[in-house]
Each structure stands twice: as structure tokens, then as C-alpha cells.
């Protein structure tokens, strides 16, 4: 019991990881996977979660043992590796936050029946509000507020999943011919689904920085075993909720021919309707608020992470830059991320499909390289041999790298031919 209390008190990076991951990849892509392809999509979802696990685990392992960020680990490998990670971070900066805020703005407009204002205007208000929360509340507030949000979402999803399973599949699902998976459209969807399932591999650097922040708030520094247990709880929860979203999409839309829209506001209405049709109209406001809270918390965690990792990367690339040592550097980074991504939203419009496609493609293609860098980092001289990952975890890492590399090569071949 005392061990459980310590674990719950330690709850931090794993919780933030779950909150950040349960966003577009779950709410959008998992639901869509079930709706279009049915139960078979549980296979790539489980595969992605299992094969990507070591990449994220290494972020916690490296920081807990060395008390340094994974970004510093890349620098120790050689500056060229840090530049590679910097490139991926730039792509994240210009795509991931924009995609998340567009979906969140759509949910907000749906919840309050707003139609007279543009999605970009609502997104701008969200950027200002969330930016202020992050600058004033900092890491401690972020961690504490997410405990309630994740609890509400988990309960809402369990109830909905049980209800849709009891009702069974919609009429016509048994005779429905699902679309081909291994053609151009199917492969592109798989890349989107697995590229952000549970999230982008470069987020291993984010988890590492959250681990550092978490250690600052604790009187006793966590052991490696305890830190990994906490992260594993969050990771398992992330994978489980992805399957819940898939089941809801499969049981309620598969075989109906309903197309989930690429427009944020329309999509938001469809998702909330999915839940309320199966639970009852009385639950509309509860579900709408839960869905919005989910995306809101995802925006907060991703905005916090991208700001932190941008500062960390720049500090390591330009160690003599005094402006990066400024106590207001985090606040400046938060504001900069908001401005950059609001411009991206304004240019791309409210069609989140373009933003998500770009971000997921880059994340997917770069995933094997980032995964290999993470393995090299935790197998380096910084970490004592007794804290190196065991043989089984190393083998799983190589399997993940090979699998994702073959998938990326197949995609590139398909595009060129």
C-alpha cells in the first residue's frame, strides 16, 4: 500500500504523456480507424504501441539515471544528432500544435454552438488562454490539473464502450465490405495512424524534460524502478484508451458509410454525437465537456513540451547565448509557439487533415532514426551498465526500428512509382 502511495505521489511524466497522447491520434484517428476499417485496425494500434514503447521508455530511463535531458544525450553522441532532432522539432513546431488547436477550437465551437466566429479566431483565444496558464501556473499546475481531466475521460470512455458493446454493431456491419487497406489510400491512413500512435517518437525528448521538472518538485529523487513504473501506468492507459476509441468508432459507424469530416467543427459534432446517441441525449453536455477537456489538456501538454524542448535544443546548440539563460525564456517560448502556430492555422484554414497529414508523415519517416538515437544514448557511457536496458528491451527496439523503417521505405517507393 505504501508503495502505491509513493507511486501515485510520483505520478507526473507518465500522466502528462497520457494526456498529450490522448488527442488527435485517439479522438480523430482511432475513431476513424474503427469507423472505416472495423476491428482489424486494433492490430496496427497494438503494434504501434508495443514497438514504440522502448523509444519513450528510454527518455525516462536516461533522465532518471543521469539527471540530464535526452537532448543533452543527443549532443553527447555528436552535434549532428542534435541537429537531426532540431530539424524534427522545427517540423513539430509548425504542425503539431496547429493541428491540436484546430480540433480543440472545433470542439469549443460545437459545445457552445458558436457559428459566427472563425476557427482561427477561436484558436487565437485558446492560444492566449493556455499560454497564460502555462506561464503563470508552470509545471506543478499542469500536473495537478491533468489528474482530474484524465480521471473524467477514463470513466466517460469506459461507460460509453460498455454501452456500445452491449448494443452490438450497427445494422449492415456484417455484410459491409471494408475498404482496401493495402492500397494508396489505406497505406496513407496507416501511416497517419501509426505515425501518431500513441504519439510522435520525438516526444521521447518531451517526456525526458517533464521527468526533469518532476524531479525538481520532489524531496526524494525517484529510483529508476519507480520512475519506470509510473511511466508504464501512463503508457498502458494511453494504449487502452486508443482501443476504446476504436471500439466506439467500429460499433457505431462501421458499415454505415458515414464519412468523418476533415473539417474541425463538423468533425467535433460527429464525435460528440457518437457518444450521445449511444448513452442518451441527457449525456450531451457531459460528453461535450469531457471531449473538449481532453483536447484542451492535450493542447496544454503539447504546448508546454514544444516550448521546453525548443529552449533545451537551442541551449545545447548555442551554449553561449545569454538570452536562453534568461528566467523569462520559457514564457517567451510559449508566446512564440502560439504566434507561429496561429499563423499556420490562418494560412492552412480550418482543414485539419492537411496539418495532421504533414505532421504524421514527418514523424513516421523520422521515427526509426530517433529511436536508434535513443538506444545509442541509453547504451552510452553516461549510464552505468546495470541501468542499461535488458536484452529483451533492446531486441524490441531493433524490431521497432526495422518495422518502421520498412513501412517508411514502402511508402516512399509507392509515392515514387
SSE arrangement:
Layout: H1 2-10, H2 13-21, H3 24-37, H4 42-66, H5 70-77, H6 79-111, H7 119-167, H8 184-195, H9 203-216, H10 224-253, H11 264-279, H12 284-317, H13 329-348, H14 352-378, H15 391-416
General description of the model:
The chain is mainly α and 417 residues long. It has one domain: Amino acid/polyamine transporter I (Up-down Bundle). The chain is 78% helix and 0% strand. It contains 15 helices and no strands. It has helices at residues 2-10, 13-21, 24-37, 42-66, 70-77, 79-111, 119-167, 184-195, 203-216, 224-253, 264-279, 284-317, 329-348, 352-378, 391-416.
- Name the poorly predicted regions: 1-5
Q: Describe the global form.
A: globular
User: Might you state the CATH topology name?
Assistant: Amino acid/polyamine transporter I
Radius of gyration: 21 Å
- N- to C-terminal distance: 59 Å
User: CATH superfamily name?
Assistant: Amino acid/polyamine transporter I
- Estimate nothing, just give the exact number of structural domains: 1
Strand content is under 5%
Number of helices: 15
Largest sheet: none
CATH architecture: Up-down Bundle
DSSP, total strands: 0
Alpha-beta classification: mainly alpha
Mean pLDDT: 83
Helix content: over 70%
CATH class: Mainly Alpha
What order do the SSEs take from the amino end to the carboxyl end, as H and E?
HHHHHHHHHHHHHHH
Short descriptors:
15 helices, mainly alpha, Amino acid/polyamine transporter I, globular, 0% strand, 417 residues
